[in-house]
Amino acid sequence: MNKLAVKLLSLSALVQIALSLTGWAVLKNIYPQANLSWFPYIPLAFLAMSAILIFALLKMYKKDGKKLVNLYMFAKLFKLVFAMVYVLTFYFAENQNFERFIFVFAVFYAFYIALEIFIIYCVEKEIKKLNETNI
């Protein structure tokens, strides 16, 4: 399972880096005069969320694999609450560029959902493989 954690964290980091560099280049070409000081915090937040998800999934499986469904639902709730708090914090802290921030955040959120689905799929596949070898 440790190999899986390293693999998933590496994949998550690579996706966030690639998406960050692409997004930064696009935003700088479209809005060269804009202040994008907030931009680096979005991929860091999603990278932290994916790391928390990976470690929680792997730790929960070791304790009780039957509680994974509850963890999936909690992860969905955590993601939603985190996103709302993050967006509201930005709105109250820096009201300018809010439309751009929301658009960039939504793009990262969509990619994070796809990444989260892949992470859960990989963990479930590993669990199935481990259960088959234990039989």
If you had to describe this structure to a student in words, what would you say it looks like?
It is a single chain. The chain has 135 residues and is mainly alpha-helical. It has one domain. The chain has 4 helices and no strands. The longest helix is centred in the last third of the chain and has 37 residues. The radius of gyration is 17 Å and the shape is elongated. It starts with a helix and ends with a helix. The mean pLDDT is 85.
Helical content band: over 70%
SS-derived structural category: mainly alpha
- How would a crystallographer describe the biggest sheet? none
C-alpha termini separation: 18 Å
Low-pLDDT segments, ≥5 res: none
Return Rg in Å: 17 Å
What integer is the average pLDDT? 85
Number of strands: 0
Total individual domains: 1
Briefly say what this structure is.
With 135 residues, the protein is mostly helical. The chain has four helices and no strands.
What brief labels describe this structure?
single chain, 4 helices, elongated, 135 residues
Give the helices and strands, then pairings:
Blueprint (H helix, E strand, L loop, with lengths): L1 H29 L10 H23 L4 H26 L4 H37 L1
Helix pairs in contact: 1-2, 1-4, 2-3, 2-4, 3-4
